[in-house]
Write a structure and sequence with these properties.
This protein is of the alpha+beta class and about 100 residues long. Helices cover about 20% and strands about 45% of the residues. A 6-stranded mixed beta sheet has the order 1-2-3-4-5-6, covered by helices on one side. The protein has a single domain, classed as TATA-Binding Protein (2-Layer Sandwich). A hairpin with a 2-residue loop joins strand 4 and strand 5. The longest helix has 12 residues.
Length: about 100
């Protein structure tokens, strides 16, 4: 799992950093199984905070709970060598 986790962390770091009106931060749960990209920005004089990317690592599966990015995490992970069969898009099966 460490290899899958290290690939996941490397890819997620690409979603963090400074943006046009704010910054995005990679956060991790204490047990190292839940990851989020939290964005903090100023948009039209409004303070905006959003967790647009939330991911869980369960055994040998990456479960993407939500992803609102222009480049979906699933595509970035496959490009990084993660088998598509190891990625679950939980946000597509919710009612």
């Amino acid at each position: 799992m460490d290899t899958l986790k290290s690939v996941l962390l490397t890819v997620l770091q690409g979603y963090a950093g400074k943006g046009l009106n704010g910054s995005s931060y990679l956060t991790t749960s204490e047990d190292g199984t839940v990851f989020a990209i939290v964005s903090v920005a100023q948009v039209r004089d409004k303070h905006v905070v959003d967790a647009g990317l939330v991911v869980r690592l369960v055994n040998e599966q990456i479960i993407i709970e939500t992803d609102v990015n222009d480049k979906p995490l699933v595509d970035a992970l496959v490009q990084a060598g993660v088998a598509r069969s190891q990625i679950v898009l939980a946000y597509t099966v919710r009612a």
